[in-house]
Amino acid sequence: MSGSEEYTKSREIWNLKCAKCGRCIQICPTYRVTKWEHLSPRGRIILSPYTEEDAELVKSIFSCLTCGICEAACPSDVDVTEIMERTRERYTKQRILPERHLRLLDNMVKTGNPYGDEIEMYETDDRVDLIYYPGCTSLAREKEIFDSTVKILDSMDVSFEVEFRYCCGSTSLRIGGDLSYAEKNYLRLKDVLKKTGAKTILVNCPGCYRTIKRDYEKFGGLNADVLHITEFLSMNTDRLRLKKENLKVTFHDSCHLARHMGIVEEPRKILSLVADLVEPENSKMDSFCCGGGGGVRVSYRDLTRAVRKVRIEQLKKTGAEIAVTSCPYCYRNLKNGAEGLSIKDLTTFIAERLRK
Amino acid sequence: MVPEKFIRKVMDVVGTDDVIHSSRVTEVYSTDASPFYGRTAAVIRPENENEVSEILKLANEFSVSVVPRGGGSGTSGGAVPKDAVVIDMKKMDRIEVFPDDMIVFVEAGAILHDIKNALSRYGLFLPPEPGSLKIATAGGFVANNGSGKRGLKYGGIRNFVVGMNVVLPDGKAVRMPSRTHRSPGIAHQIFTGSEGTLGVITGIYFRVIPLPEEKRTYLIHLKKRDNLNRILREVLKATPDAVEYMDSRTSSAIGFEPFDLLAVEILGKDRCAEKIMERLGGHVLEGRDEEDFWESRETLGAEIAKKGTRVYAGEDFAVPFSRLNEFIGQIYRIERETDSEIFIYGHLDTCNLHPAIVSKSFENAMETARRISRMALDMGATIGEHGLALRWEFARGLEIFRRVKYCLDRRNILNPGKFGI
Q1: Are residues B43 and B126 in the same domain?
Q2: Residues A337 and A253 both lie in one domain
Q3: Residue B80 contacts A, CB cutoff 8 Å
Q4: Within this chain, do residues A252 and A338 fall inside the same structural domain, yes or no?
């Protein structure tokens, strides 16, 4: 390697296992819509050791959708999402954040949820087997998901109680906020489980699902099964009384539900009961982000819109009449840019097809 | 640092959204897949040939060095700048197929995989294929005179370049279009393999050929490496389309029995070649099995990275056929002495080996790479297909290169520091 020594320095990047091969670049949604390498996983990994007030650097770190598609392609098993979240923690501690991210964290302090709204609270002391935790978005922004879930559970004669006081902490964790919000809800749910004797927590939101099922392990875990609504319904299809229709639908996998948590067949099993399912380009573990993940929608709307446009095109190409998802946040984001395509959350879609 | 006035004038050309300077993020453009790091003064993204031309004129006016960049998948540091501005070509990615002429025109930033897909829609293909198919750009591939598999029958990418659009270091745009499969003169070929030192390639005309109706791959397991040269000679008699080699460690890494392996690709129907393969005990792969095999071969270099710290350094050597076995043996000796793990694979139809170094640390990997390079030089080996750039110790005929460089780029504006110049 003579003649080139001056260029060669040991860098922290090698400690992050990244061989810089570049396999993550073309598949990254934010790279795909910008073609900037610093908005790709390899670029972000190279920049991850720094914490500096530099708008473009901050954008690189905080525009990662944490969708994890790069991890699926990475031959070196680099934990890109984990590295991004740890990097964001450093920025957050030093308050080097995009302005709207700061506002979101302030909302968490003031109201306990990222929307900054007073969200309707639910609590129960009744003895029950199943606790339904709807999460912030299903209660504060997309109430039809909450209403549909309740309607479905009632139609199945499920005995349950609704519980919601605090945000699960997911948004804060994904953008590098501290653990305290997650821990607060963990303690709350632990208490509720004790009081009610419930053995199962049911959630709508894949963000809540990942946080409660996986991230709460850091605090000791909950002595309960945590189920996403799609898991619960697919385990109980015999209790669902549905109308089958001559309808073509496609399904958008949420990154958190599919890649982060491995749930891909369950929603398909349910949808197949009522409609003909067609797969879009990029589905299941290879799903393409809706553009709203990782807090990107908060401060980098242009990126969210551009990524969403790609996803909407993929969904439209299937020729399906309706695109269904099972994530309140994906639903919220996709329907804002649907351009003529009908978007439904799985709960609403199923609730509309219940036999009376 | 580049003059503020230069940046302002460049922004007048490409707009403010396609220039980044004075930001830490330029560091991303200071490296590629090699272990080398340089320093990027600014990143500029042109959208057309005219913008490239204007940028180079300004670079001359302000004496600013310029490095063209494609996918950043090079392993010899060809795109690594030394206090230079980087022209990122990836926004120029147009692909236009002329199916009746079996010619494709691509802009320099087009990704090879996208070109492959565009061609397959017309039943056409471009035989040279690197492992970085999904990352590398056409411009980078041509600038490195890359090859990948199928080197014996088809040669490197040079053999498929029939025309080119280039912007010279002084900003003069030169177009050398071609719709024919043969093209006279050396003009465009000067830039093939020039690694961004003589001009900025903005577009390339490739000749392409019809996809064969039939294809198959034979796998030959070698129980003893001693027979490698003899069997290889037999295989080459069949004039196969590709002969890929994996040592026992590499073949077992992708799920095969731990024996050295030859994969022989035969495109089209060739009874004679089939007979030779049968005589050598080749196991035939067709259809999905064959596709799976080549898919795993394509990701092989990267798969090895799972084993530990993988540094893409000192891993591309064209070796004299007569010293193939000896070369492999010497690599294993270095492996033992440096306590690293080396996976050897490559394109044996051109005796081009890629020893992939996996090590416990970056420093150890680099030391292993240095020792392999020294051994390779002693053995008369050279760089195969990954470019010389910052590994110019393997360069030959540098005097000629210096003179050509002086003719075309007297002020040494383009990609300075490469080939030691």
Answers
A1: no
A2: yes
A3: yes
A4: yes
Element (H, E) at B403: helix B398-408
Q: Do A3 and B393 touch (CB under 8 A)?
A: yes
Is B219 in a helix, a strand, or coil?
A: strand
Residue B359 has pLDDT above 90, yes or no: no
Pick among A5, A7, A38, A60 to test the B interface (most B CBs inside 10 A): A7
Closest chain B residue by Cα to residue A45:
B28
Can you say whether residue B347 is alpha, beta or left, with left for phi > 0 and alpha for psi between -120 and 50 degrees? beta
| DSSP letter string, A34-87 | H--GGGSHHHHHHHTT-----HHHHHHHHT-----HHHHH-TT---HHHHHHHH
Q: Domain holding B56: CATH number?
A: 3.30.43.10
B116 touches chain A (CB under 8 A): no
Cβ distance B23 to A57 less than 8 Å, yes or no, reads yes
Domain that holds residue B226: 215-378
Token pair for residue A257?
Answer: 């539900």
ipTM: 0.92
pLDDT exceeds 90 at position A302: yes
What is the pLDDT of chain A when averaged over all its residues? 93
How far apart (Å, rounded) are the C-alpha atoms in residues A216 and A186?
A: 7
User: What's the distance, CA A189 to chain centroid?
Assistant: 20
What are B209's strand-pairing partners?
B125
For residue B20, which amino acid is it?
I
With CA atoms as reference, the chain A residue closest to B369 would be A1
Cα dihedral sign, A340-A343-A348-A350: positive
Mean pLDDT calculated for residue range A238-251: 95
Overall domain count for chain A: 3
Q: How far apart are CA A348 and CA B11, in angstroms?
A: 50
Gap from A56 CA to chain B (nearest CA, Å): 7
Q: Which of A239, A284, A269 is nearest to A346 (CA)?
A: A269
The CA radius of gyration of chain B, in Å to the nearest whole number, is 22
Query: A204: domain CATH number?
Result: 3.40.50
Q: Which residue has the tokens 């978005």?
A: A137
Residue A146 vs residues A138, A161, A274: alpha-carbon distances, Å: 5, 13, 21
Range of the domain at A292: 242-351
Element (H, E) at B40: strand B39-44
Number of domains in chain B: 3
Can you give the pTM of this predicted structure?
0.93
Q: Determine, yes or no, domain membership for A165.
A: yes
What's A251's domain CATH number? Answer: 3.40.50.1860
Backbone angles phi, psi at B63, to 5 degrees: 50, 55
* Record: contact B29-A37, CB cut-off 8 A: yes
Question: How many helices and strands (H and E) does chain A possess?
Answer: 18, 8
Which residue in A295, A337, A300 sits closest to A36, CA to CA? A300
Q: Which of B210, B239, B261 is the last residue of a domain?
A: B210
* Cα–Cα distance for residue pair B38/B66, rounded to 1 Å: 13
Task: Provide the pairing of β-strand B103-107 with B200-207.
Answer: antiparallel
**Residue that is last in its domain, among A235, A266, A300:** A235
* SS3 state at B389: coil
Tokens representing B346 are 């490559």
Q: How far apart are CA B382 and CA A343, in angstroms?
A: 58
Measured from the Cβ of residue A61, the count of other Cβ atoms closer than 10 Å reads 25
Q: How confident is the model at residue B420 (pLDDT cuts 50, 70, 90)?
A: confident
